[in-house]
Amino acid sequence: MKAGFAISHSQKAWVVGNNNVEMTVTLLGAQMAPVVFDRNSRHPIQPYYISPWQGEGLKMPVQLLAPLRGDFFCMPFGGNATPYKGEKHPPHGEVAGTDWELAGCAKKGAVTTLSIICATKVRRGKVIRELSLVDGHNVIYSTTRVDGFEGKTSMGHHAILAMPAKEKSVLVSMSPFKLGLTCPHQFSRPENGEYQSMAPGAEFKSLSRIPTIFKNPPIADYSSYPARIGYADLIGLFDQPKDGVSWTAAVNTEENWLWFALKNPKQMPARLIWLENHGRHGNPWNGRNCCMALEDGCLYFDAGVAESAKQNIISKRGIPTCHDLKKKSPFSLRYIQGAVRVPAGFGKVMDVRFGLDQVTFVSVEGKKVSMPVCHSFLKNGQL
Known about the structure:
This protein has 383 residues and is mainly beta. It has helices at residues 305-309, 377-380, and strands at 4-8, 11-17, 22-26, 32-36, 73-74, 101-108, 111-120, 125-134, 139-147, 151-153, 155-157, 159-162, 170-174, 179-182, 203-204, 210-211, 219-220, 224-225, 231-238, 246-252, 257-263, 270-277, 290-298, 323-325, 331-341, 349-355, 358-363, 368-372. The protein has one domain (4-380): Beta-galactosidase, Chain A, domain 5.
């Protein structure tokens, strides 16, 4: 089986699909979008964001912004402004802004897999990504294998969702977390034409009650989006780092679909939410971006490898913010993303129930939607 090739929103890309899902992955940065779930239905679902500067020919301050879209793997995760042991990594690492190569595309039984590879230079090694589709599943199963690396690094996924025009029409929820904390440093800097609404370094227990920089309101609801036009914010939610399944769900009440992600919190204890609502005015943003990123990983906010590898306010709580890789021991990270149609009136997800190769989402209204998902993939890598 061969992967298709296309120019998608100004970027060279591979295109792979089955009867349920079609995914497009850019050569530059291996950024995954557009993705069409439920592709043969009357109402296909396209949840991922694609940046508005595609085709404009703008000079980018960092390479990963050129294709910016959908989900992509970051290593080291973060801005990486501070060098680490003589290494100077670009923002989110070479893997997010360099060309990948096709390693193969194959269909075995019900499973179709795109395999791509990136050889890094700042810290030499190879990163192999396998993106798999299963017939009958509106799901993407991702395995990222890190081979030949030595030393500590932050890493994670960076899934960016498109936002509808209607305010507060996307409802976000997740499994219980150990620690909620707004970005401890200033995330958006006015001197750079950026503005934030959250108070830095504030702890919280619920997305619906987060401290702001304002006297009125001093507390705001950040569980529904888009909201607060003119601001860009970053939230951190940290799980107990133990084996299991941790979930995130975003319900689009305008288009009646639900996007979700599943992770193993032992490997990825952190979950960042980047809320961008026309809050950045420098190049190439120019005040026109409205999106939400749900970023799962092992990391210290958006800082980078140097800050993630040393003791910080998160690691002091017993939550790791980096992985210590060994050259002779390949490291694998597995992740699940998918989407499903929900009935009108299906609100915020309050619970996720895991059956045999099935997941059921339960809304606050008591409505239920089930779909086939091999969630055991997170543990055993089997489909």
